[in-house]
Design brief:
The complex is a heterodimer of chains A (about 180) and B (about 200). Chain A has 6 helices and no strands. Chain A has about 180 residues and is mainly alpha-helical. The longest helix of chain A is centred in the middle third of the chain and has 48 residues. Chain A starts with a helix and ends in an 8-residue tail after the last helix. The chains are: A mainly alpha (about 180), B mainly alpha (about 200). Chains A and B meet through helix 3 and helix 4 of A and helix 2, helix 3, helix 5 and helix 8 of B.
Chain lengths: ~180, ~200
């Protein structure tokens, strides 16, 4: 038998019968490379587990406590910087308006009241328009027809969501 | 095992005491992997501590259908691979190491056969020196296979590789180790022979 089957047996760690074992032993006497394969596997299996220095868990607790403190500090500092940055940005954006407001407050208050009245009247008009549209649509189709349309749209939406979820969350193992 | 599941559940709910029990229970496995990967006790200690810290911070992501120790070793292996890639460590020994890189070990005089014991240790050290020449991921696969007796499927899950990739990496590593071993063996055998030859020849 040539060299290759013996190498395959050794690399795949195949369980050998008595005849195969005899053939392998005979091959090992003449093949230094296969002998090295056997030797390295035996040495690898003979090495014991390395043990950490005593007190590992205590040192971990100390490290965890230090990490928690640092994390808390980072969060507080982050919040302060975020708030300060927001305030500065807001101040910078509002500075032209604030200057105008302090120069003539009466005209600004009048403009604000006018804006509020406009929003309120727009809302009222929208509600009225909605009522009219619903009234017209209700006359066009019977309630059963509306139920069919709404169910169809809901079904298609559900199918779409499930497809997106399946494609987005399928995990693929990384190769070499 | 049931204790472990209970500790994991308690730790996920915020119990530091339960997590410390998990650390005590798995410190040797994690430390050993880091030590075999990095080769230095200080680096291994730091990497093992970092592994537990990352596990603590990501405990909510742990899937309890998987083995907890496999999950931990997966974190440790990825951390060590990244660390080795960032900084290629040249030192790789099993115990104490001399400045010139050779391993210094004393055979146990209480052993029934101190000479055989010493030979075994020399062989283990030699293999460790050879291990450092392997690619980081290959080294992690070899360590998981031979130190932890992990199956190819478990190694694939831990290192996020396909099973065929693990098989090919293990074969490649075994071939490389055997080749290097054989190369070292040849000059050693010649030296050994010369040592017993007469100086007159």
């Amino acid at each position: 038998m040539n060299h290759q089957p013996f190498e395959t047996w050794l690399l795949n760690e195949v369980a050998l019968d008595a005849q195969q074992q005899r053939e392998l032993d005979s091959h090992l006497r003449s093949c230094a490379y296969c002998a090295a394969l056997v030797k390295t596997a035996r040495v690898l299996r003979s090495v014991k587990l390395a043990v950490p220095a005593p007190g590992f868990a205590t040192r971990f607790q100390a490290r965890l406590a230090a990490e928690k403190t640092a994390e808390r500090r980072r969060r507080i500092l982050g919040s302060i910087f975020f708030a300060l940055g927001g305030m500065l940005l807001l101040g910078w954006l509002a500075s032209p308006y604030l200057a105008g407001f302090f120069q003539s407050p009466a005209s600004w208050i009048a403009a604000l009241v006018e804006m509020a009245v406009f929003i309120l009247t727009t809302l009222q008009a929208s509600v009225e328009a909605g009522k009219v549209i619903l009234d017209v649509l209700g006359r066009l189709l019977p309630p059963f027809g509306w139920m069919v349309i709404v169910s169809g749209v809901a079904g298609i939406s559900l199918l779409w969501s499930v497809s997106i979820w399946r494609f987005a969350f399928r995990s693929v193992p990384q190769g070499v | 095992m049931n204790d472990e599941l209970a500790w994991v559940a308690q730790a996920q709910q915020g119990s530091d005491e339960a997590f410390t029990r998990l650390v005590e229970s798995h410190q040797t496995h994690v430390y050993n992997l880091c030590y075999r990967m990095l080769g230095e006790p200080e680096s291994a200690e730091d990497a093992a501590q970092e592994t537990f810290l990352r596990a603590y911070q990501n405990l909510h992501r742990y899937d309890s259908s998987r083995s907890f120790v496999t999950w931990l070793l997966s974190i440790a292996a990825h951390y060590c691979i990244d660390r080795l890639r960032r900084k290629k460590l040249s030192v790789f020994s099993m115990d104490e190491e001399r400045e010139d890189g050779t391993v210094f070990e004393i055979a146990d005089p209480a052993s029934p056969d101190p000479e055989a014991e010493s030979t075994k240790r020399e062989e283990r050290d030699r293999l460790h020196r050879l291990l450092r020449d392997l690619d980081e991921t290959d080294r992690a696969a070899v360590i998981m296979r031979y130190w932890y007796d992990y199956s190819e499927i478990e190694i694939a899950e831990s290192l996020q590789l396909t099973v065929s990739a693990v098989k090919s990496r293990l074969h490649r590593s075994r071939r490389a180790l055997a080749g290097m071993w054989q190369e070292e063996e040849t000059p050693l055998a010649q030296t050994e022979r010369r040592r017993h030859e007469s100086p007159a020849f």
